[in-house]
């Protein structure tokens, strides 16, 4: 990296003051500062993009490793299942017993209620709880609701 000391910066400033002039020097310095800031931001963005691409490549490698491991586990499990089923059929001898008329029979189907329970159609929440919580149980028009909550007016007497 270029090493600028105080003496070199002072020399560059003096030459710039002579060449550019004292009137234009602040504007030129401000422009140079803006350009240096943009360059630094651009370099930082490029570094961040490179880091993201490196991380993405690492994640892709990890993904392929996990997929390979999952495939291996799946193959081992399917192989172990096949071996177990083969050993089970050999040990129980169920294939010959079923052909001869004996062996295992599936249980009869369980009784299922026809689901005609009238209690299910009503709400499970008790009425007293709904009343305490202020849940409306009846439909009411807007005008009826306003009339219900309107303050009561005393009736006017005739002749007063």
From TrEMBL:
Residues 95-160 are annotated as: Disordered. Residues 113-122, 147-160 have a biased composition (Basic residues). InterPro entries: TatA/B/E, TatB. The keyword Membrane applies. It is a single-pass membrane protein. Residues 56-83 form a coiled coil. Keywords: Cell inner membrane, Cell membrane, Coiled coil, Membrane, Protein transport, Translocation, Transmembrane, Transmembrane helix, Transport. It is found in: Cell membrane; Membrane. Pfam families: TatA_B_E. The keyword Protein transport applies. The Tat system comprises two distinct complexes: a TatABC complex, containing multiple copies of TatA, TatB and TatC subunits, and a separate TatA complex, containing only TatA subunits. Substrates initially bind to the TatABC complex, which probably triggers association of the separate TatA complex to form the active translocon. Belongs to the TatB family. NCBIfam families: tatB (TIGR01410). Part of the twin-arginine translocation (Tat) system that transports large folded proteins containing a characteristic twin-arginine motif in their signal peptide across membranes. Together with TatC, TatB is part of a receptor directly interacting with Tat signal peptides. TatB may form an oligomeric binding site that transiently accommodates folded Tat precursor proteins before their translocation. This is Sec-independent protein translocase protein TatB. It comes from Caldimonas mangrovi. The lineage of its organism: Bacteria, Pseudomonadati, Pseudomonadota, Betaproteobacteria, Burkholderiales. The gene is tatB.
């Amino acid at each position: 990296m270029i090493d600028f000391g105080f003496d070199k910066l002072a020399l560059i400033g003096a030459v710039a003051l002579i060449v550019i002039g004292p009137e234009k020097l602040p504007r030129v310095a401000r422009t140079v500062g803006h350009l240096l800031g943009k360059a630094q931001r651009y370099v930082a963005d490029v570094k961040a993009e490179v880091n993201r691409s490196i991380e993405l490549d690492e994640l892709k490698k990890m993904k392929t490793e996990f997929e390979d491991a999952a495939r291996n586990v799946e193959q081992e499990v399917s192989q172990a299942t096949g071996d177990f089923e083969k050993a089970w059929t050999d040990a129980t001898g169920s294939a010959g017993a079923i052909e001869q008329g004996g062996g295992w029979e599936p249980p009869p189907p369980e009784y299922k209620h026809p689901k005609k329970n009238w209690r299910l159609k009503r709400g499970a929440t008790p009425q007293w709880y709904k009343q305490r919580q202020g849940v409306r149980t009846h439909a009411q028009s807007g005008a009826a609701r306003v009339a219900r909550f309107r303050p009561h007016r005393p009736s006017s007497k005739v002749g007063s």
